User: Which sequence fits this backbone?
């Protein structure tokens, strides 16, 4: 069902030491990465993007995702099978094009400092051409990949501070992260809907920490950075609720404790 484009990537687990350069530092590789798939109902976004402004909302409102989830223990293997399946499908040039599986082009990436109208922009991209566009707004697989090395380096720093002698045995590579990102985007872009042409990705605000991973993977794909008067951003964060749980402080607390930020 994954190969037929019926299931969609909704989460990605990247274990410590999964992203590194091997063979004398010349070849990027990843291993041990696991993916979670379920049948997303993209018609919800196409009918009313504002009803599912974030990727997590689309997942929670896709009724089949509640019970029909599938974990893949070797993400690299399923990517290879999917690419081979799609290449064979394209070569056959089947007359029934409605069953062709393709991976959509990437229209662009949206980076932002948060509380600056980025969700409005992603909703506009979804609404301007709902048949052709698919918009991933702060999706878990993308941010897990982009930030993988940052989180693992923080874990290494924490282990060093606690005198763990093995903290340097795994050197996380942004180049390997970029290779994984290409595969993640390929899988998230696969569709059996002949009308869909482009996919867009709105990052979480913390994604600006590793913009270089995105530009390494997709050097020719356009991106934008949205910002706002920083005083207004801070006022928006501290307007209500527990200030210690604000995103701008949450990462600070996690860094001091050696934990990865929850995604």
Assistant:
């Amino acid at each position: 069902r994954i190969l037929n484009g019926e299931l969609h990537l909704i989460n990605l687990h990247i274990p410590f030491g999964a992203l590194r350069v091997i063979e004398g530092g010349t070849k990027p590789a990843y291993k041990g990465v696991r993916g979670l798939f379920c049948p997303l109902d993209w018609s919800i976004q196409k009918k009313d993007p504002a009803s599912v402004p974030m990727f997590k909302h689309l997942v929670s409102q896709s009724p089949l995702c509640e019970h029909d989830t599938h974990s893949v223990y070797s993400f690299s293997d399923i990517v290879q099978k999917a690419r081979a399946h799609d290449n064979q499908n394209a070569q056959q040039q089947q007359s029934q094009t409605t069953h062709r599986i393709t991976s959509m082009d990437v229209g662009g990436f949206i980076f932002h400092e948060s509380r600056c109208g980025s969700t409005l922009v992603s909703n506009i991209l979804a609404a301007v051409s709902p048949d052709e566009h698919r918009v991933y707004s702060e999706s878990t697989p993308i941010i897990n990949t982009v930030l993988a090395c940052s989180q693992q380096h923080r874990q290494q720093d924490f282990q060093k501070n606690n005198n763990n002698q093995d903290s340097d045995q795994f050197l996380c590579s942004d180049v390997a992260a970029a290779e994984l990102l290409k595969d993640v985007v390929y899988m998230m872009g696969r569709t059996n809907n002949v009308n869909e042409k482009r996919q867009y990705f709105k990052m979480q605000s913390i994604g600006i920490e590793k913009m270089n991973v995105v530009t390494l993977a997709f050097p020719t794909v356009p991106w934008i950075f949205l910002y706002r008067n920083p005083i207004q951003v801070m006022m928006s964060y501290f307007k209500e609720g527990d200030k210690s749980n604000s995103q701008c402080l949450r990462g600070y607390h996690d860094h001091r404790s050696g934990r990865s930020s929850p995604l």
Notes: The longest strand covers residues 105-112. The chain is about 40% helix and 20% strand.
